[in-house]
Amino acid sequence: MTVPNQHHDMNQIEELLKNALRRQDAPPDFSEQVLARVAEHNSVPRVRHDTWWSIFIRPLVRWSAITATAISLVVGGIHYRNARRERAKGEAAKQQLMLALRIAGSKLQLAKAKVNEINATQVKKQSSSEQE
Amino acid sequence: MRRTVSHAIVILLLARPMLLRAQEIKLPPDVEKLSVKAKETVEVNMDGPMLRWASKFLSAEDPDEQKAAKLITNLKGLYVRSFEFDNPGAYTSAEVDQLRAQFSSPLWSRVVGVRSQREGDNVDVFFKLEDERMAGIVIIAAEAKELTVVNIVGPIDVDELADLGGEFGIPRLNPKTLPKSTMKSIAKAEKGNPK
Questions:
Q1: A87, A91, B54, B131: which sits with the fewest CB atoms below 10 Å from its CB?
Q2: Phi, psi of B33 (to 5 degrees)
Q3: Residue A76: its pLDDT value, please?
Q4: Whole-structure pTM value
């Protein structure tokens, strides 16, 4: 008794499924709608969370930075070398100056000492002649 | 006319280094050659700008260098020639006389002239006076084994300069940079001149 009822139920389910899975054509403006959605999605600005060095990703920036660093190193090196040379020359000039002044001073002292020696001898002679 | 003026300017410009060089003493050619015979030669040629430049490197902490900076403030030139020989008789008295003769003009006055027959040390100090003000000193020290000529162009404090040669028997000189005979003569001078 239950068999014919069961068969009827099965047919009903089958019919429902057939209806549900029936091929349906896309609406005529479907592709336009899809493209519009895609365009809308692309136009929204992305929030980038880049680090500071990410600017060097660009080759122009990277090479400019490398060139600038190289130039500053070369210029700094030349400046440092020149400053050192200048300092060495100055030190040598100072040594020469001190040497010249010391030689001059020593010769003046020699002259002074000679004059004092002569004066002392004359005073001695004078006093001895007075005693006599 | 323009040509004459430009020629005169060119001549003046060319003559300028010669005029500047004229501040230096002309050493007789034979004296110049002494460096070949000399065991040690000291040659210092410093004009005004060079002195100013060198003074920038003088330390304010070193009393000697402080004194030196003060001494050279108004100097226009400092020229030293010193020859030290192994044996006496490397130069003749005629050569030294030739040197001395350059200071026989009325501009110069000899303030010290010492002749020592025994030790053979002869020292002459000439002062140059301009408008009754000292404008330079020349020292010619002809010792048995050493000949030194010092030419200081410009005013200088003589006592301060003599102080740089040493004090209280302790020479302030660096023995490494001075001829040995200079050291000996300083020691000798200080013995004869106790302060």
A1: B131
A2: -75, -10
A3: 97
A4: 0.65
